[in-house]
Write a structure and sequence with these properties.
By secondary structure, this protein is an alpha+beta fold. The protein folds into two domains: 148 residues, no CATH class; 32 residues, no CATH class. 50% of the residues lie in helices and 17% in strands. The strands form two sheets. It has a three-stranded mixed β-sheet. Helix 2 packs parallel to helix 8. The mean pLDDT is 88.
Length: 183
């Protein structure tokens, strides 16, 4: 998991905001699968956001960016390349998500618009987030979560199997770094 979080931070820090944001949106999926293995994707995603992200960063919720809105955004962005969470089937599970027309990520140099929401004449809300700040907030929440999981042998076993840079992957390689899950 550390590899994934470090990759997000490195991508955002070097201006590669789209891959950073897309990968950051998968963190609650991964962590939620560890914490709530029997639950469906949306339930575990929202549960993880509500437990680990939202309490540390309550301003997102004040802008209608709750667990359901992030899940709906993740679905639209990863599967369709769109950033309108109100059009995702999951959005109906939350008033905030169903009225959230757009979550846009500010990526311009020298522009610092973060958690800026405007409501249009129809009542739909439009929110701008600073990509690097959002990614940093997600990785900070995940790092806190990782520390809390250190004594959990089941969680550590699952985390050890995640994608990482591995040097020995027989029969493919020995001593050659590969990005892959444990085999």
């Amino acid at each position: 998991m550390q590899f994934i979080l470090d990759s997000i931070d490195q991508a955002a820090g070097s201006g590669h905001n789209f891959p950073a944001v897309v990968t950051a949106l998968t963190v609650p999926d991964i962590a939620g699968a560890v914490d709530f293995p029997g639950d469906g994707s949306m339930k575990r995603y929202v549960s993880w956001v509500n437990q680990w992200f939202s309490p540390k960063f309550p301003r997102y919720g004040q802008h209608g960016v709750d667990g359901v809105a992030l899940y709906a955004l993740r679905c639209k962005l990863l599967h369709e390349g769109r950033s309108d969470p109100s059009k995702a089937p999951a959005s109906g599970k939350s008033k905030a998500a169903s009225g959230k027309r757009l979550i846009a990520f500010n990526v311009g140099p020298g522009i610092f618009v973060h958690l800026c929401t405007v409501t249009d004449g129809t009542g739909a809300s439009w929110t701008a987030l600073r990509a690097d700040a959002f990614c940093s907030d997600v990785t900070a929440a995940a790092r806190r979560w990782l520390v809390a999981r250190e004594g959990d042998t089941r969680a550590m076993s699952v985390l050890a199997s995640l994608v990482d840079v591995r040097m020995d992957v027989p029969p493919l390689s020995q001593g050659v770094p590969l990005i892959c899950a444990a085999v």
